[in-house]
Amino acid sequence: AQSVSQHNHHVILSEAASLELGCNYSYGGTVNLFWYVQYPGQHLQLLLKYFSGDPLVKGIKGFEAEFIKSKFSFNLRKPSVQWSDTAEYFCAVNEGGATNKLIFGTGTLLAVQP
Amino acid sequence: NAGVTQTPKFRVLKTGQSMTLLCAQDMNHEYMYWYRQDPGMGLRLIHYSVGEGTTAKGEVPDGYNVSRLKKQNFLLGLESAAPSQTSVYFCASSYWGLAGRNEQFFGPGTRLTVL
Question: If we measure between CA atoms, which residue out of B108, B52, B95, B100 comes closest to residue B75?
Answer without folding.
Answer: B52
